[in-house]
Amino acid sequence: MADHVHIQEVGLRDGLQSIAAVMPTAAKKRWIKAAYDAGLRYIEVTSFVPPRLLPQLADAAEIVDYALQLEGLTVTALVPNLKGAENALKAGVHRMVAPISVSTQHSLANVRRAPMDMVQEFGRIRECIDAQNAGTTLIAGLSTVFGCTLQGEVPIDDVCNVVRGSLAAGADTVALADTTGHATPTQVQEMIGAVRSVAGERLRSMHFHDTRGMGLANTVIALQNGIREFDASLAGIGGCPHAPGATGNVVTEDLVFMLESMGYRTGISVEGLLACRSILTEALPQEPLYGFIHRAGLPNTYSTHQRVSQ
Amino acid sequence: MADHVHIQEVGLRDGLQSIAAVMPTAAKKRWIKAAYDAGLRYIEVTSFVPPRLLPQLADAAEIVDYALQLEGLTVTALVPNLKGAENALKAGVHRMVAPISVSTQHSLANVRRAPMDMVQEFGRIRECIDAQNAGTTLIAGLSTVFGCTLQGEVPIDDVCNVVRGSLAAGADTVALADTTGHATPTQVQEMIGAVRSVAGERLRSMHFHDTRGMGLANTVIALQNGIREFDASLAGIGGCPHAPGATGNVVTEDLVFMLESMGYRTGISVEGLLACRSILTEALPQEPLYGFIHRAGLPNTYSTHQRVSQ
Predict the structure, then answer these.
(1) Which UniProt keywords are listed (chains A, B) (predicted)?
(2) Whose CA is closest to B221, among B181, B191, B188, B199?
(3) Chain A residues with CB inside 8 Å of B3's CB?
């Protein structure tokens, strides 16, 4: 029996927060529904940030409410701080990911707090969840793990320290993000080894950007090292406002194609994902979309590979 | 000491043969010189085919003559048949690669000969080299190894049979090409294992197309399996006239960036390669160019990685 790999669509958060255009709420709902119909069961649907900072995500509560109606969908939101976590809890998300940037310079630029101050805030979010007996999963989303456009190198020891801190502060799981597209296959292997020695099985998922075309190569290395959960964005939209040149996440449809054709099971239809792209084209006509499978089409051997894997 | 990886630029052959525009001979020479100056020491400079079939490469002999003047450059040409090999020998190439398509349908469409008929022709090329005591290296370039847009699946046994045949017919080394962009990381691993059991160390190099974005992922797997020679095209130009949707080769500058940042040594400057792109832009203004590093730039950690690796 083939390994299952969980894919979380993050385009609605990471993608939409980093482009100037505002996607209409109705289009976001169509996207969530189409992604769900294509088989996605994990979607990071929004971020609970003040609307004056990110008007693109001002409809966070309404979007969560909509997503919660889809049976079997695990609804995740990003929460930059305690206030955001309170709002996310109120909205009823299943999981929240609180970002902690390991690069001090990136952390200060992004949330005006040093990494260890964010770990303290993380602890307050944990207390808030526990006080409400909410049962919400709390993910430590470590960002700029593989390098930083502001700081340059990010030492592995710094990453491990933040992992230790966030676990002590109550993280259920840890996700590692290559926010700025610095990661190389060699680094991914070393980083997973180092973080696993601290976090064990709580190191759960990877979030790669495809800035320099290595997103899939990095994914293959992470798979070899036991990772079975990955973030991705439909059509690769996304980036980071504080990381110039950091283009979008790994393209969801390309990632699913690669995994399925390697014999992994995702439960997701590539054809279904390709169909979703028209929602982006219509709602964000100015936005560049990415992806190889969209251009080349599925190979004539694709269904055979899928049969082999099942 | 870090492993050395040999990169062969094939854009002048695989790239230029599959686009309608004809690059002026003077521009080809500028490209060869700029690639050489960037550190490339292996270039597949042309193909010896009848000019009426490929007017883009009608200057084959002149291009080889120019390339042979660059000290330390290994000059390779593709030869589709004995006649082409005779012309390549006359021109004085160091290496010739004779393609043998493993897919019968692709072979018939491409050269109007079945794979085993091409193996026989390959034997005649070997005899021709030996009769002249030329010392030219003869490479069996197996194409459509991972799938075929016409035939679909290409069984591993068929690949191994063609490898056996070409070795018996006198191949010095074997190269495996994903002509149509079907290869997945899983397949690459299986294929290298199977072919190596037949060819041993004579399995030397891989030629990946990036049709579905997996060129670098496939390269990483090939590296893990001991391959240290790869073909690539500047700016990813290339394809296959008999494989619709088969976009270009792996992008040379992206490949060199990945290898260097993983700690391998290529002897090639990414900056030098990026500078080469302007030759293509000027000589082929209509042609789409590809590549991630060109768009994103080198990360601020790049020189550090290089230092670590040296």
Answers:
(1) Lyase, Metal-binding, Transferase
(2) B188
(3) none
Give residue-wise pLDDT tens across range B124-175. Answer: 999 999 999 889 999 999 999 999 989 999 999 999 999 999 999 999 999 9
- Dihedral over Cα of A66, A68, A74, A76: its sign: positive
- Closest residue in B to A210 (Cα) is B292
> Tens digits of per-residue pLDDT, A57-92?
999 999 999 999 999 999 999 999 999 999 999 999
Q: What is the CATH number of the domain that holds A78?
A: 3.20.20.70
Tell which residue, B36, B42, B34, B27, has the closest CA to residue B207.
B42
Hey, is A98 helix, strand or coil? strand
pLDDT in tens, A120-167: 999 999 999 999 988 999 999 999 999 998 999 999 999 999 999 999
**Structural domain boundaries, residue A277:** 6-289
Cα–Cα distance measured from residue A274 to residue A266, given in angstroms and rounded to the nearest whole number: 15
Question: Which secondary structure element, helix H or strand E, spans residue A42, and what is its range?
Answer: strand A42-47
Assigned domain for B294 exists: yes
Please give, rounded to a whole number of angstroms, the shortest distance from the CA of A150 to a CA of chain B: 8
CA of A71 vs chain B CAs: smallest distance (Å): 33
Whether the pLDDT of residue A108 is over 80: the answer is yes
Q: Which two tokens stand for residue B289?
A: 């160019």
Counting as low any pLDDT under 70, the low residues of chain B are 1-2, 239-246, 304-310
Asked whether residue A191 is domain-assigned, the answer is: yes
What is the rounded distance in angstroms from the CA atom of residue A179 to the CA atom of residue A18?
12
Q: Closest chain B residue to A189 measured between Cα atoms?
A: B262
The catalytic residue positions of A are 240
Angle at A307 between CA A305 and CA A310, to 5 degrees: 110
Residue B102 resides in a domain:
yes
Query: Is B240 considered catalytic here?
Result: yes
Mean pLDDT (chain A, rounded): 93
What total number of domains does chain B contain?
1
